[in-house]
Amino acid sequence: xxxxxxxxxxxxxxxxxxxxxxxxxxxxxxxxxxxxxxxxxxxxxxxxxxxxxxxxxxxxxxxxxxxxxxxxxxxxxxxxxxxxxxxxxxxxxxxxxxxxxxxxxxxxxxxxxxx
Length: 115
Ligand SMILES: [Zn+2]
Prior knowledge:
Layout: E1 5-8, H1 12-15, H2 25-29, H3 31-43, E2 48-53, E3 89-94, H4 99-102
Parallel strand pairs: 1-2, 2-3
Zinc ion binds next to loops.
């Protein structure tokens, strides 16, 4: 059985101060660790799945939380250097806490290799 690294919500909106759902300095501190793990998996040719909060401007989640990670905004982007460090990768946008509950299809992008 092959290992797969799942990277969840390592997004500008959660890891950068100034956004409404910034998770604090602890989120910033783990970025180098996550990048190191991605590089380790990449060296071994292992696949990675990036799960990313991604909402429509009128998403019903905004009844509970302030608007965040709206599709197409900087806030919804993966922290620079993480996604790029993975060669075997796929990005799965989600609009709820759990991708399993209401996950969406992987982004169709010719630059991404399906895993
Ligand atoms: Zn959300």
